[in-house]
Amino acid sequence: MGNRAKNLRIVNALSNDLPDLRDLMGKSIESLQVPFLNEAQIRASYEVMGLDTQLIKDNTYFAVFADETLVGCGGWSKRATLYGGDHSKGRNARLLDPSCEPARIRAMYTHPDHARRGIGRLILETCEQAARDAGFARAEMMATLAGVPLYLACGYVKIEEIFDTTSDGTKIPLIRMGKQL
Hints:
Elements: E1 8-12, H1 18-32, H2 39-45, H3 54-57, E2 61-66, E3 69-77, E4 103-110, H4 119-133, E5 138-143, H5 148-153, E6 157-165, E7 171-180
Parallel strand pairs: 4-5
Antiparallel strand pairs: 1-2, 2-3, 3-4, 5-7, 6-7
């Protein structure tokens, strides 16, 4: 397995996991975005990134543990919102039609001490299988620049680049990506 994490366990995230999930997300954003975003963008990115707790309610959000340590999280959605947390603008809880709309891959984060060990790939494969099982033939996501290399390696293609502008005018680069399941 090389430098891949061993003893990984992926489970549905629960509402009582929220403090640990949010802590992991903060560490991931603060560390893994550094090569791609400047300090102002990292601070502002919290406005457009984060966890949509609807995913936990829908039972489509996962936590990954190495032994008993939370090392990653991510999910998929059958709802229209493409990205962002509970606090983000533009949320839409409308259920998607799997016959003609893509599932959403959402809120993927890896603890920086465990990056590049297969955790993101495990989450992505779990999400893709769950979306297929729910009848979806395609998945889309809004990727951070830090996530693009993983998603490309997993067969996703770039659809468009956008800049989400936060309330203070900071522009956060994001890449919409998609894949046939």
